[in-house]
Amino acid sequence: MSLAGFDTVLPSQSGPAGRSWHYPAAGRRTVFLACAALAAVGGFALTGGAAASYAAAQAGGDLTGLVRAMAALKTAIILPAVSAVVWRLGAPARSEMLAGYTLAAMSMSVSPGLIWHMAHVGAGAFLMHAGLIATLVILLRDKAVGDRLAKLLTSRAAR
Q: Most exposed: 27, 68, 131, 150, by fewest CB within 10 Å?
């Protein structure tokens, strides 16, 4: 039984720990996007209910509208970061990098749901910013990002 191409795992000798495993690009992207989507759905599904309704009613219509607009804005900020990671995962990635990217994306993805329902606005804001900073740090420390950008710029300059 095949799970998104994970039946073919290729060993590699790159990385400081010695041996690491590289999964096919389609598998990396599928797992990453599935985890991010699951976190986003969970953020909306788990925070809805009596506590969220009470928090929205106590805040009033104007504040509720403002906070929900902030949740939509945070979603607009998250999408380019997730897109950059999906682009990055087109090249082989070490397991540690894939795990870091996935956890950071899950942290970011759960935040709009927490903020939208106004049950955990502070936690949602913290998770979004922590995930965004973690994503940026991992992208900046990932050597493959520079290699992919150089290859992209070289191919465009050759045209």
A: 150
